[in-house]
C-alpha cells in the first residue's frame, strides 16, 4: 500500500545513519526511529484510532515526540500539534473543535486534560520530555511489522490551528501532498543532503519546526541536533559540529548578542535560514559582517507552507523574502478590485500551488472567503514584487502581532481584557520590540473610579491566555482614538507607542 508522505521519508532514510542527536545524549539512527514509529503506530491502532481520526499532541520537545508525528503519518491519523504554552481553557477549545480520538499530553497534565478529553469523547495517553509515558509503554510490546495505512496526496496529514482575526482559531488542514511537495522543493532549493546536520532549536508544534525543519531533514536523509529550546550560547557552541540553522529573527538578534559568535564559530556552517517574521535588514547586515554568512530569508504561512525563498546561489537581498519557490505562483493584487498589479506596486499577496492547504477544518465559508475565484489563497500580507522578481513584504492587512515568531491575534486578547470588571474597552497592538520583533501591548480604558492596575489585569489573564499572548505592557488611557466610522485607529496607537520598548 502506498502512503504518500511516509513512503518518501522511508525511501530517503539512510538506514543506520544518525537522524536525531540529543546534545550530550543518545543518537537515534533512522532505523531506530522508524522502528519505534511503527510500534507507536501499532499501539495507536490498538487504541481504536483509524485513518482520518485526529491525534492531538501537547508535549515537550523530544525525539519520541517527533517519532509520534511519524507514527501518525504511518497510520493515517491526522496529527494535531498544540503549543505547550496553551492553557487548559485554550486546550478545551481545540479539543472541542477538532474532536480528536486521542490526546497525548505530559504525565503532569494527564488528570487535568482527562476531564476535558472525556467531555469530548477522547482517550488520553502520556509522553514526557524524557520520552517516557503511557503511550511508549503501550508501544514497547507491539510488533515491528506494522503495515502503513494507504494515504493519497489529498489525504490529511495534519491540522495546525492558526488564530482567527474574527472569532476563534481555525484549523488549517494540510495534506500529504502539501507537505511532501513543499519539503522536497525546499530540500532541493537549499541543497540539503545526507551530510547536513541541522541545529533544531525551534518548537515542533508549528510549520517552521515541524514541517520545514523536520520534513526537509528527513527527505534529505540528514541529521539534526534536537535542542529542547533556543539558547544562543548552546547554539554557538554546537556550530562547529553542524552545517545548518533554521530560526525566527529573534534567534539571530540573540546570536548577535553572543560574543562567541564570530567567523571561527561558523566555519563549518553552510546555511542560516530565517523566517516566520520579518528579519530586519540591519540584523541581516550585521550578521553578515560578523560571520561572513548572508542569512537566507524565506516566507511562509501555516496555510501555505513556504512560498518564497531567497536564492541559495545568487543574491540574498536583505529586507526581501526572495523569489517564488518552483511550482508556487505568487502575485500581488489591488485589494479593492482584485486586479493583478504590475511590478513595484504594493497590494495583497496571493498564492497558488501544491503547497496551499485544503481549507479550514469544518469551516467551508471561511475557507471560501480566503480564496479568489481563480483559486489563489489571499494571504493577508501586503507586499510588492520588484522588477527582479523578489517579493517584499511591507505590512499586513490582517490585525495580527508576530512576537518572536508566534502569532497573536489582538481580538482574542482584547476579548479577554474587555470581560474584566472595570474595563470599558481595550486595543491590543504590536510595537517594535528589540528581542521579539513586536511586543504585545494593550491600551485599556477603565471605568471611572475603578481600581484596576497592570498587575491585576495580567493576573486575570494568567489562566486564560498562553504567556506569549499576554501583553508585555498595559497602558491606561482616557479613550481610544477613532476614525469617522467609529473604528479604533490602531495605526495612531502604534505610532504613539512606537518607542515603548526602545533599547536603552
Ligand atoms: C516566550 N515568551 C514570549 C515568547 N516566547 N513572549 C512573547 N513572544 C514570544 N515568542 C515569554 C516567556 O513565556 C517568558 O515569560 C518571557 O516571554 C521570556 O521568555 P524567554 O526565555 O526569553 O523566551 P524563550 O523561551 O527564549 O523563547 C523565545 C523564542 C521562542 C523566540 C526562542 O518564542 C521561540 O522559539 N519562538 C519560535 C516560534 C516559532 O517557531 N514560530 C514559527 C511559526 S510557523 P515569563 O513571564 O515566563 O518570563 C510560521 C510560518 C513560517 O510562522 O513562515 O514559518
Ligand atoms: P503563521 O500563521 O504563524 O504561519 O504566520 C504566517 C505569517 O508570518 C505570514 O502571513 C507573514 O505575515 C509572517 N511571515 C512569515 N515569514 C515571514 C517573513 N520572512 N517576513 C515577514 N513576515 C513573515
TrEMBL record:
EC numbers on record: 6.2.1.-
Record domain AMP-dependent synthetase/ligase: where: 11-361
Which family does the record claim for this protein?
Belongs to the ATP-dependent AMP-binding enzyme family.
Q: Name one Pfam family in it.
A: AMP-binding_C
Q: Which domain of life is it from?
A: Bacteria
Name this polypeptide is given: Malonyl-CoA/methylmalonyl-CoA synthetase
- AMP-binding enzyme C-terminal domain residues are 412-487
Amino acid at each position: 500500500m502506498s502512503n504518500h508522505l511516509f513512503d518518501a521519508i522511508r525511501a530517503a532514510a539512510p538506514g543506520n545513519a544518525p537522524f536525531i542527536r540529543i546534545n550530550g545524549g543518545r543518537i537515534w539512527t533512522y532505523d531506530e526511529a522508524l522502528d519505534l514509529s511503527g510500534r507507536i503506530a501499532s499501539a495507536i491502532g490498538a487504541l481504536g484510532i483509524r485513518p482520518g481520526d485526529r491525534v492531538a499532541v501537547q508535549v515537550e520537545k523530544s525525539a519520541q515526540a517527533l517519532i509520534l508525528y511519524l507514527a501518525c503519518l504511518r497510520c493515517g491519523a491526522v496529527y494535531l500539534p498544540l503549543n505547550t504554552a496553551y492553557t487548559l481553557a485554550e486546550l478545551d477549545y481545540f479539543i472541542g473543535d477538532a474532536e480528536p480520538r486521542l490526546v497525548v499530553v505530559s504525565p503532569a497534565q494527564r488528570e487535568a486534560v482527562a476531564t476535558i478529553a472525556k467531555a469530548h469523547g477522547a482517550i488520553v495517553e502520556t509522553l514526557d520530555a524524557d520520552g517516557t509515558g503511557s503511550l511508549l509503554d503501550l508501544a514497547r510490546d507491539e510488533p515491528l511489522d506494522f503495515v502503513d495505512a494507504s494515504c493519497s496526496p489529498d489525504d490529511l496529514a495534519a491540522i495546525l490551528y492558526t488564530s482567527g482575526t474574527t472569532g476563534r482559531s481555525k484549523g488549517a488542514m494540510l495534506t500529504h501532498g502539501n507537505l511532501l511537495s513543499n519539503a522536497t522543493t525546499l530540500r532541493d532549493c537549499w541543497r540539503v543532503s545526507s551530510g547536513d546536520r541541522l541545529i533544531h532549536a525551534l518548537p515542533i508544534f508549528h510549520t517552521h519546526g515541524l514541517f520545514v525543519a523536520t520534513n526537509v531533514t528527513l527527505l534529505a536523509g540528514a541529521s539534526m541536533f534536537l535542542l529542547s529550546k533556543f539558547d544562543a550560547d548552546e547554539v554557538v557552541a554546537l556550530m562547529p559540529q553542524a552545517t545548518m540553522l533554521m530560526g525566527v529573527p529573534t534567534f539571530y538578534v540573540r546570536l548577535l548578542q553572543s560574543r562567541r559568535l564570530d567567523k571561527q564559530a561558523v566555519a563549518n556552517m553552510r546555511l542560516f535560514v530565517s523566517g516566520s517574521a520579518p528579519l530586519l535588514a540591519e540584523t541581516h547586515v550585521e550578521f553578515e559582517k560578523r560571520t561572513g554568512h548572508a542569512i537566507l530569508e524565506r516566507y511562509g504561512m501555516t496555510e501555505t507552507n513556504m512560498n518564497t525563498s531567497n536564492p541559495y546561489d545568487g543574491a540574498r537581498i536583505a529586507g526581501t523574502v526572495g523569489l517564488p519557490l518552483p511550482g508556487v505562483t505568487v502575485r500581488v493584487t489591488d485589494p479593492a478590485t482584485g486586479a493583478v498589479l504590475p511590478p513595484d506596486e504594493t497590494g495583497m499577496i496571493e498564492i497558488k500551488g501544491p503547497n496551499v492547504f485544503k481549507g479550514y477544518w469544518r469551516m467551508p465559508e471561511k475557507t471560501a472567503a480566503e480564496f479568489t475565484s481563480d483559486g489563489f489563497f489571499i494571504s493577508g500580507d501586503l507586499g510588492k514584487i520588484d522588477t527582479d522578481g523578489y517579493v517584499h513584504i511591507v505590512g499586513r492587512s490582517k490585525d495580527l502581532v508576530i512576537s518572536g515568531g508566534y502569532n497573536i491575534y489582538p481580538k482574542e486578547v482584547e476579548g479577554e481584557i474587555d470581560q474584566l470588571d472595570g474595563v470599558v474597552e481595550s486595543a491590543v497592538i504590536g510595537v517594535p520590540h528589540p528581542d521579539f520583533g513586536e511586543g504585545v501591548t494593550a491600551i485599556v480604558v477603565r471605568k471611572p473610579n475603578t481600581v484596576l492596575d497592570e498587575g491585576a489585569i495580567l493576573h486575570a489573564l494568567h489562566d486564560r491566555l498562553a504567556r506569549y499572548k499576554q501583553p508585555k505592557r498595559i497602558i491606561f488611557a482616557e479613550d481610544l482614538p477613532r476614525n469617522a466610522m467609529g473604528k479604533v485607529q490602531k495605526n495612531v496607537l502604534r505610532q504613539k507607542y512606537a518607542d515603548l520598548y526602545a533599547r536603552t
